[in-house]
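User: Can you write out an input/output pair for a complex, sequences first and structure second?

Assistant: Here is one pair. Inputs:
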Amino acid sequence: MSTEPLALSMRVRTIAYEDRIALRNVALDIARGEIVGVAGHVGAGKSTLALAAAGLLGRSVPATIAGAIEHPLGGRPPAAFVFANPSTQLTELGETVEEEVAVGPENQALASAAIRARVDDALAQANATALALRIPRELSGGELQRVALASALALEAPLLVLDEPTAQLDPETAVRFAGAVRGLRDRGAAVLLVEQNLELLASLADRVILLADGAVLATGAPRDVLGRDPPLDARLGGLRTRRDPPPASARAEHPSLLTIEGVSAGYGDREVLRDLSLTIGTGEVVAWTGRNGAGKSTLARTIMGLVEARTGRIRLGQRDITALPVHERARLIGLVFQDPRRQLFSRTVLEETMFGPRTLGLSRAAALGHAREALAVVELHAREAEHPGDLAPQLQRRLAIASALASRPQLLMLDEPTAGQDAEGRWLIRAALELQRSRGAAAVITHDLGFAQDACDHNVTISHGHVSHIGRISLERDSFRR
Amino acid sequence: MTSALDRWNPLTPLAAAVAMVLAAFAGPQPYAPVLVLAVALLVAIASGIGFKVTALTALVVLPAFALLVLLAAAFPDAATAQRQWVPSRAAVLDALAVSLRLGAAIAALGVVVVGVAPRRLTRALAARGLPAWAAYLVIASLEAVPDARRRADDVIDAQRCRGVPVGKGTGMRGRLRALPALAGPLIVGLVTESEERALALDARAFDPRASRTALAPIADPSAERWARRVIWLALAAVIAWRLREFAQSLTIT
């Protein structure tokens, strides 16, 4: 146990939202210069623990806490927080990224020179210096997450609480982020890190707490908690007892399903895609990777018709769809956005899944069949009568994928589908991709190279708006340890 | 958005605009509002925001003038009651005078609203002691419409991808059918966003009662401070003059 003074002392009997107990019997101390990791399945209570540790529960988030949560080192605020959804971090008080990052130090009433130093340092640590003068709401998801990190780092609070901080970061930035967290520890900060990326957790944390169903299942050194038998996934619900999805088909002869030839596209004066060409074969599942802001999401939006192709042609099979309206393309192509809350509106999970097929003209009976099949693939069939708004964000994402699957498109594109997903969620999304493979093809925009390696046939790297590399995914498993 | 006015401390154009509005109403008629309107439009043109300010002014003043003339025609005074639906010359001149004052006020304040970045204005006001909650309220109000529009665009994109026809060529029936799919996520999203914003502010040490500092404080050169003092003095003089005239008219009566 560390002899350093404590930044967090938590003795909690229960934490409840209305009548539902989300966390019980948690005793947690974090000392200066210590990184404590938190792992667990979706709904295990990780985010509740993180919000409580940061002192945000019961204030901004209504909850009843039985017990005591203390921050002996004080501070205003005593803890900085990085949210799983980076757009949640934005206060909108700043017009540019650097002004947004400065909001915390401005609230701390620091002098201008001190604020400037904090902002520059935080942006550098988050690999976001180049974004300083950009407008936050125009950034990609990954870029926004870097800004969210910088905004929290700029507070220089004694305790830093990170809830899935690398979910949307490209691998290079994630590695830099790991280095930045180590640097913070070396400078005496205490860190609570909630993370589904167990490799990152094992490489960073001094101690790990494993949560299951709102209680502590195990706690100790990462090697002991994450590496012992039976494996972690098995202890979290027998996930490893599942049959693995069918192996990704060997890259054989795949007749082209999607062909993109010399497409350029962008927003206003800003050109994002530059003379981009690629193909996806029938029966392929392809990963689109690249740095934050490289143009991956814009590529998907252009294929879907949401962004106009200024030059070039897009064909699906033999059909030129370059000028086809979006609602007509929806019969052929499905796109699931990073934020599923943009689309959920029905009263039940089942109705939400049936909406796409019904809109495309299927009979109620046929739509019901498609919806139930898709919900079974992502294992939401038992919750078909629930309100979509009552689902956890990770389950909402799976619901959005099921909704797209139910329309049975020839090509399905998923934007960062595994962000925040536990092992079970990742397995189910992989199963959904295998089903899609049998019907056409799929493209996955992801920074999760482990998932891409397991679920996809090959990788297309997008860089500065064009394809810079096509090939097998190679993953450096120990990259976070550097 | 930036304009040539961003070279100034935002309090200076704000003070000038408030003074111009009061001068338009308190100064000699009809010369004062005409002068204020002309000056405001000239400043707007010089600052590169002439079209927006002129459009804003016309959008308010022309319908107001038309409405006043119509009212005068529909409800004439006793002397001209027999000439129904034809406004008297006096009524038209009255409508013109009211519209001119209104136009002068809209143009003067429009220069500030269009030409001064709201975050600069609130930062300058915060430096003068405006509480953090009030500054946030100003920004949130100004950003509410663009925020809702952005979110609506996101929702429309997501639902178009599910086959919902939106835009040109969509009939009334199609629009009505699309309404729940578009309005539902938008309304829920706006409510959720306000809760998330509160959480984000709390996580960033925002205290509505405390004072804040700034990354880049707005410069306030002494020349501008003196200019504002002169503006307030001139304004006080105009108001005093009008009050004196008013008091004299009461004595004569």
